Amino acid sequence: MQQHEVTALFDQQAANYDSQWQNMAPISQALYFMMSPLFSKLLSNAHILCVGAGTGNEILHLAQAFPAFRFTAVEPSTEMIKVCKHNLTQAGVAHRCQFHNGYVDSLKNLMPFDAATAVLVSQFIVDEPKRVAFFADIHKRLKPGGLLVSADLSANQSASTYPEQLSHWLSVMSSAAVSPEQIERVKLAYENDVALKETHVIENIITESGFTGVYPFYQAGLIKAFTGVKALFKPQTLDCGLTF
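The structure corresponding to this sequence follows.
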C-alpha cells in the first residue's frame, strides 16, 4: 500500500475513527500507562514530536499527565488532523500544540525534540530500508538523549501458531464496531500491505536508524511497543579503525 493510499484510507475513517475503535480503548490506555514512566524522566517542559498523531489520543494523554509538555503533531491525513485539532481544542490543550499536515520528512521545524512517538505508523512501510529511513528521520530531529516510543503490529507470520494468534486478534477486533467485511479486509491487508515483523526484526530496524538501547516494553495481542534513545554522543573513530 502506497503512502497516498494509506492517507486516503484514514481520510475516510477520520470522522468515526474513535467511536469505531472505542471497545479497544483498554489496549491503548494500557500502552499509555506503560509509556508514562518513560516520559516522566524528561524535562518538565519537554517538546514531543508525535508522528502519525491521528485523532490526538496519545497527545491528550501526555498533555494531561505532563501539564507543561509541548507537542508537534505530524499527520498526513487532512481529515484526521482536523479531528485531532478539534479534540485537543475541546480538551483545552491545543494551545500547547503545533500541527503539521504532512510527513516527518516534510516537517520544516528542525528544532530538536526531547522525545518522539510513532504509534501504529511504521507498520505501513513494507519496504524495510524505507522503514529504517522513517526512523532515521525521527532520530535526526531529536536531541542527544532523546526518547523514542514506537508501537506497531508484530508477529511471526511463518510460525505454526500464527493462524490461531491471528484468529484470536481478529476476534478482539470484532468486538469493536467493525463489520465482518472490514475484518476480512484487515486480514488481507496483514498479508499484503502491513509489515508484521518479529520482535528482533523491529528492534534491528530501529537500531539501524541510529537509536540505542532498544527494547520492547509492552504487548497486547499483535500490538507491541518499543523504546530507544538517541545516543548522547557519536562514537569517534581512530585512524586504525577503533572506536571509543
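The radius of gyration is 18 Å.
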